[in-house]
Amino acid sequence: MAARIDADLFSRAKAADAADPLGGYRAAFDLPVDTIYLDGNSLGPLTHAARDGVSATVDTEWGRGLVGSWNTADWIGLAYRVGAMIAPLIGAAPEDVICCDSTSVNLYKVLGAALAKRPGRHRIVAERDNFPTDLYIADQAARRAGPAHHVQWLAPGQMIEAALDEDVAVLMLTHVDYRTGAMHDMAGLTRAAHAAGALVVWDLAHSAGAIDLDVAGCNVDFAIGCGYKYLNGGPGAPAFIYAAPVHQADIEQPLTGWFAHAAPFDFSPGFESRAGIGAFLTGTPGILGMRCLEAALSIWRDVELSDIRDKSLALGALFVEAVATSDAAPMLALASPREPSRRGSQVSFHHPAAHGVMQALIADGVIGDMRAPDILRFGFAPLYTRYIDVVRAADRLAAIVVDGRFESAAAADGGAVT
Ligand SMILES: Cc1ncc(COP(=O)(O)O)c(C=O)c1O
Ligand SMILES: Nc1c(O)cccc1C(=O)C[C@H](N)C(=O)O
């Protein structure tokens, strides 16, 4: 296979790795050797801390402590504790974030709470191109809020601000687009929603752990996000909810289970909500998942979010440059914004045989993913992705595309879903 990437890019990558302030964090991960993992935006990899944390929970807390571990290991307080660990990663105070349930379920809860705070307004404004779970959940939230409630779906490129008027209750947006990595202006759009009297709900699935977020500084009303992507909490890890302090006094959310009760162990037939962010809880948390995420989050203790963003921007820019200066450039159209500051932590390219190309790339040791119909998606998680990984990935991608090795790979693939 001919070299398709300029040798200078390899030298620059090695120098950048040697100077990387986050370089030491890679050792916290148990990554398979000979694999370049660029799919942490779908599922973050295993950390040594998570493996150890889960095994201690299983052996000691569950195995020996049995039911007493709800108290002795404070399982009962995990939702708050893990929420407090996520808080600094999104620019929130510890008491304003709770960890629970899935992103989809949490979205339903915060949309319900937000709609309840804007009586007399009937519209959720949202983007048609968003990740499908957000579309389905918003539709349900609107349908169940009342006969006049509905979602206004914006087409790609349609001006969001122009849709905001006195009937809008909630502007619901995903901060970083799952296909293209395009990032919204959180501060500006939150301001625009507030100027129209609406509340804003942000989905941070592709942002938390990858961007230097500041939900409090942006005056965000509600946010939700994923534990299993850049936070590396493991498959199906619990998700999180942020609510601004101003909204926590009287939360009316639609899935009030007993964990949201002010005194759950009174087993009272009448519901009385917990005060504060705990009002968003529903039922018994999955403790193994909570512990796994908690342990994975422990590695973030001393991480500077500005280092995360700086490296994320640099990794993305290097990948774009490597592909753009390769022989494959005419065959790979950038699907992400060209301006790095308008991207999250992923870079995507269009290719008409994206599925086959990605299968060939995976066979070559580079794991990214594809999104229909034609998007090749590469996520850059600054804690473990090296600059050299990015250049090697671009090199192998270019070789596959130029050599046309993807057709046979497409034919051989059985149709993976991820
Ligand atoms: C924007 C967005 N929201 C939500 C989700 C996932 O929600 P859940 O974890 O509930 O499946 C994803 C990805 O799976 C996503 O990309
Ligand atoms: N959440 C996923 C899952 O349960 C299985 C496979 C993939 C996923 C994903 O992460 C999808 C994802 N949110 C995306 O950005 O495409």
UniProtKB/TrEMBL annotation:
<dbReference type="GO" id="GO:0019441">
    <property type="term" value="P:L-tryptophan catabolic process to kynurenine"/>
</dbReference>
<keyword id="KW-0662">Pyridine nucleotide biosynthesis</keyword>
<dbReference type="GO" id="GO:0005737">
    <property type="term" value="C:cytoplasm"/>
</dbReference>
<dbReference type="InterPro" id="IPR010111">
    <property type="entry name" value="Kynureninase"/>
</dbReference>
<dbReference type="GO" id="GO:0009435">
    <property type="term" value="P:NAD+ biosynthetic process"/>
</dbReference>
<comment type="pathway">
    <text>Cofactor biosynthesis; NAD(+) biosynthesis; quinolinate from L-kynurenine: step 2/3.</text>
</comment>
<protein>
    <recommendedName>
        <fullName>Kynureninase</fullName>
        <ecNumber>3.7.1.3</ecNumber>
    </recommendedName>
</protein>
<comment type="similarity">
    <text>Belongs to the kynureninase family.</text>
</comment>
<comment type="pathway">
    <text>Amino-acid degradation; L-kynurenine degradation; L-alanine and anthranilate from L-kynurenine: step 1/1.</text>
</comment>
<dbReference type="GO" id="GO:0030429">
    <property type="term" value="F:kynureninase activity"/>
</dbReference>
<keyword id="KW-0378">Hydrolase</keyword>
<comment type="subunit">
    <text>Homodimer.</text>
</comment>
<dbReference type="GO" id="GO:0030170">
    <property type="term" value="F:pyridoxal phosphate binding"/>
</dbReference>
<dbReference type="InterPro" id="IPR015421">
    <property type="entry name" value="PyrdxlP-dep_Trfase_major"/>
</dbReference>
<comment type="function">
    <text>Catalyzes the cleavage of L-kynurenine (L-Kyn) and L-3-hydroxykynurenine (L-3OHKyn) into anthranilic acid (AA) and 3-hydroxyanthranilic acid (3-OHAA), respectively.</text>
</comment>
<keyword id="KW-0663">Pyridoxal phosphate</keyword>
<dbReference type="Pfam" id="PF22580">
    <property type="entry name" value="KYNU_C"/>
</dbReference>
<dbReference type="InterPro" id="IPR015422">
    <property type="entry name" value="PyrdxlP-dep_Trfase_small"/>
</dbReference>
<dbReference type="GO" id="GO:0097053">
    <property type="term" value="P:L-kynurenine catabolic process"/>
</dbReference>
<dbReference type="InterPro" id="IPR015424">
    <property type="entry name" value="PyrdxlP-dep_Trfase"/>
</dbReference>
<dbReference type="GO" id="GO:0043420">
    <property type="term" value="P:anthranilate metabolic process"/>
</dbReference>
